[in-house]
Every structure is written in C-alpha cells, then in structure tokens.
C-alpha cells in the first residue's frame, strides 16, 4: 500500500472506505470484493466486535482502514465503548 502524503489523499481514502463499509438496515455491510453483511446484533459487545475483527483479519481482502471503520460503526451503532490502549 502506498503511504498517504497529502490531506486530500486522506480525504479521498476515507470517502472510499465509507463507501465500502456502511450500515444498511440492521447490518453492517462490508463491500470490498463482494457484499459481506454482519448483523448489528452480532457485534453489540466488545467481545463480539473482537470476534468479528479476528474473523475478518483472516480474509485476504481486508485492510486496516476497513477494520477501523467496521469497529467504529459496530461500536457507534450499538452504543459500545471501545477503550484504546495507547
């Protein structure tokens, strides 16, 4: 992956990821290679979100940006607080 060097490149990348990972009804849709639907009820605790992250990381098409967006949407839509370790 090529590093992002300018603010407009970052903005474009975030917009692309927002088109790939979004909420549709009661599912988070990850549409990178094909539409992959994850029910919001299946990711409504920190443990369930982590389980999905582990599962998704086994896919060869996943990126950090897609994982980050998935976690943000799953936590935000379900009112789950995610603590950062840094």
Describe this structure in words.
This protein is α+β, with helices and mostly antiparallel strands and 86 residues long. The protein has one domain. 47% of the residues lie in helices and 16% in strands. It has 3 helices and 3 strands. It has a 3-stranded antiparallel sheet. α2 runs antiparallel to α3. The longest helix is centred in the C-terminal third of the chain and has 15 residues. The chain is globular and about 35 Å long. The model has no long low-confidence stretch (mean pLDDT 90).
Largest sheet: 3 strands, antiparallel
Overall 3D form: globular
Succession of helices and strands: HEEEHH
Please give the radius of gyration in angstroms.
13 Å
N/C terminus separation: 24 Å
What is the residue-mean pLDDT, rounded to a whole number? 90
Please report the total strand number as a whole number. 3
Structural class: alpha+beta
- Portion in helices: 40-55%
Number of helices: 3
pLDDT < 50 stretches? none
Strand content: 15-25%
Largest sheet, spatial ordering of strands = 1-2-3
What is the count of distinct domains?
1
């Amino acid at each position: 992956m090529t590093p992002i060097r300018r603010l407009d490149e970052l903005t474009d990348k975030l917009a692309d990821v927002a088109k790939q990972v979004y909420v549709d009804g009661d599912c988070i849709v990850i549409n990178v290679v094909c539409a992959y639907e994850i029910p919001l009820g299946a990711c409504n605790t920190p443990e369930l979100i982590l389980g999905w992250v582990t599962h998704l990381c086994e896919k060869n098409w996943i990126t950090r940006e897609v994982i980050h967006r998935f976690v943000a949407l799953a936590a935000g839509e379900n009112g789950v607080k995610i603590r950062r370790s840094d």
